[in-house]
Design goal:
eight-stranded mixed β-sheet; eight-stranded antiparallel barrel; about 625 residues; alpha/beta; 33 strands
Length: about 625
């Protein structure tokens, strides 16, 4: 592939600390279990007192915007740093100006001995959590306490609150007239919009061009890279893609078995066999191969929304009509038209691993010695959109080279480094030296619309403005990436059950860390000597006992012949069992019962508000402890 030359830098300047061009800052959140480790990127402030701005349109627009003072930044260093290093988000756009660090021997920060000039003393860092200036390194895990959702949530609720039917939030890209910030630079497309498409097909890419001609819509495609190890999950992924009516979807088949599987299913595919540096075919190794594939797609002029297969698609990110699912009772054939959720004003638009406004969109951080830095939680390398531009092509070409030569580099780390780390005149780019970076303009996706599962399970489903499980109301994201949890296909099934098949509050079965939310209380049982005391204290048990004395029997999942006896004996249509009270210490203080029969454990919860009147039917919900299946129980 003929990699385009770099654009060069629009702006050159001096960082607050000469030896810090960017750092990977790890975070440890033990409550998340399997995914407790996550990454963020931190870059020192660019000092506003010593800046060379070349006479480019990007520099001019950047200077005009900074002169307005409309960015609400705490100081000029932060304002300049954010414009040059951090991504656009929602209505906030960036100029796309590129940055390079001036030679450190000639130009330096304050009192660092620059031979030609030294910048004035930089502004001290003011952390995101308060007004006190920080003079020492900050605990990298402090960010884990932030829970600020107003910005992203406000975008989704711009048309009004979440309601019934398809009144489930607006994830469309904000109209250009409503955005703020410097006008973004024009994208430099590989295939000019008014010219031929696809291009470069004669360079060994005829097979790719054939499928792109057939599948691409508006020169855009959704692409998933897969091998034969994950057919079940690939099937779930494609089922959701079909329901969202994303017809411009392609699977890159990394082996013959996957190509045959796609062919039998009628799924458009591109057969491209590649081998990772280690020879492994596991998820991480396969993930690193995607940049070689993306280089080919971009080379023929098609823009790509790259998607891992552990993603459930619920809307068409490119825009288009889809049947409303689950269907509306009074209007089962209703069709909803989604406007595009892709902004299309940047070379790269990526999903974040962040969980709120602060973590996803950038914040102040004190590095070693109190060096003021701008920090942002990593964007996920399993979901991002690449416009088919020269800058995007250059970036994936660099990443493909790194993944084929750097044995211990995680593809997500490299993907983030290439976007935000500073380009040094002394040492090159990406920390360890190297050629000039691609100079991509960047945007981070709205995390309520393109959700990760830390946000979904830990925060969104408890946000009363976005979710009401009992009423069956929820914001409908464009996609959910099951990246934070090990039960990938299982959680995908639950998401499909709720958002596509209409099962109310199906996601409630999962803990926001590992495992199921009901696991601990569901299997907890009292000691024999505790049983009588627990019966006496439980309002729920008393209601059941009183009601059982009034009726001949109840029903379990519609099957009649259910009887609760005072001595804890349970009679069911399938045989005798035992019932009792789950210790409140094991159920977060909730009043719950257990019912065990035919070697299967169940947990009972009150499903309807009631009183002590034994003439009123008691409605309960049973959760089977082995798999979370729920059924209605009445007495």
């Amino acid at each position: 592939v003929n990699v385009p030359n770099e654009r060069g830098a629009d702006v050159e300047g001096v960082p607050h600390h000469a030896s810090m061009l960017g750092q990977v800052v790890g975070m440890g959140d033990p409550a998340m279990g399997w995914s407790q480790y996550s990454q963020s990127m931190a870059m020192p402030h660019v000092l506003s007192s010593l800046v060379l701005m070349h006479a480019t349109d990007e520099s001019r627009r950047l200077a005009e915007w900074l002169a307005t003072g409309n960015d609400n930044a705490v100081d000029a260093d932060v304002a300049l740093s954010d414009e040059l290093l951090l991504p656009a988000h929602d209505e906030r756009q960036r100029s796309g100006a590129t940055f390079r660090v001036l030679p450190s021997k000639c130009f330096s920060s304050w009192k660092a001995g620059g031979a030609i000039a030294e910048a004035a003393k930089g502004f001290p860092g003011k952390p995101w959590y308060g007004d006190t200036y920080v003079s020492r390194a900050e605990d990298p895990n402090k960010i884990l306490t932030t829970e600020t959702f107003d910005s992203a949530r406000g975008v989704v609720l711009r048309d009004g609150p979440i309601g019934d039917g398809d009144d489930n939030g607006n994830c469309a890209a904000i109209a250009p007239r409503d955005r703020r910030g410097p006008t973004p630079r024009a994208l430099r497309y590989i295939a000019p919009p008014a010219g031929d498409f696809p291009v470069g097909c004669e360079a060994g890419l005829a097979d790719l061009c054939k499928v792109v001609r057939k599948v691409a819509i508006n020169r855009q495609v959704l692409v998933a890279v897969s091998n034969k190890n994950i057919f079940y999950m690939l099937g779930l992924y494609l089922d959701a893609v079909a329901t969202a009516n994303i017809t411009n979807s392609i699977v890159v088949a990394l082996d013959k078995d996957t190509a045959a599987w796609c062919r039998a299913r009628g799924t458009p595919y591109y057969h491209r066999e590649l081998t990772s540096l280690t020879g492994s075919t596991d998820n991480h190794a396969t993930s690193g191969l995607k940049f070689r594939v993306l280089r080919e797609f971009l080379s023929v002029g098609v823009s790509v929304l790259l998607s891992d297969v552990d993603i459930v698609w619920m809307r068409n990110p490119f825009g288009g009509s889809r049947k409303v699912v689950p269907s509306i009772k009074d209007d089962p054939e209703r069709v909803h038209v989604d406007a595009p959720a892709i902004y299309g004003d940047s070379d790269v638009e990526g999903m974040t691993d962040g969980w709120d406004d602060v973590s996803a969109y950038g914040f102040e951080h004190a590095g070693a010695g109190g060096v003021p830095m701008r920090r942002i939680v990593a964007r996920n390398s399993g979901l991002f959109y690449l416009a088919a531009t020269k800058e995007s092509l250059r970036m994936v070409s660099r990443l493909a080279e790194r993944m084929s030569t750097e044995r211990n580099t995680w593809d997500q780390t490299a993907y983030n480094e290439e976007q935000v780390w500073m380009w040094s005149s002394d040492r090159g780019a990406a920390g360890n030296g190297g050629p000039a970076p691609a100079g991509v303009s960047q945007r981070v996706m709205n995390y309520v619309c393109f959700e990760n599962t830390k946000y979904l399970f830990r925060y969104m489903r408890y946000d009363k403005q976005l979710y009401d499980g009992a009423a069956g109301r929820s914001v409908r994201p464009v996609s959910v990436h099951v990246n934070y949890h090990p039960e990938k296909p299982q959680r995908m099934v639950t998401l499909i059950d709720q958002y596509i098949k209409g099962e109310r509050d199906a996601i409630s079965m999962w803990n926001w860390g590992e495992g199921t939310s009901f696991a601990k209380p569901c299997v907890a049982r009292p000691k024999p000597e505790e049983e009588a005391n627990l019966f006496g204290k439980s309002t729920f048990a008393r209601r059941v006992t009183d009601r059982a004395a009034k009726v001949e029997s109840g029903s379990w999942g519609g099957a009649k012949g259910l009887t609760f006896l005072k001595n804890g004996v349970l009679e069911t249509p399938w045989g005798k069992g035992k019932w009792g009270v789950i210790p409140s210490s094991e159920s977060d203080g909730e009043d719950r019962l257990f019912a065990d029969f035919v070697s299967t454990q169940h947990m009972l919860q009150v499903a309807s508000a009631g009183n002590d009147d034994a003439t009123v039917e008691v409605r309960m919900t049973s959760t089977r402890c082995s798999d979370g299946q729920k059924v209605d129980v009445t007495l």
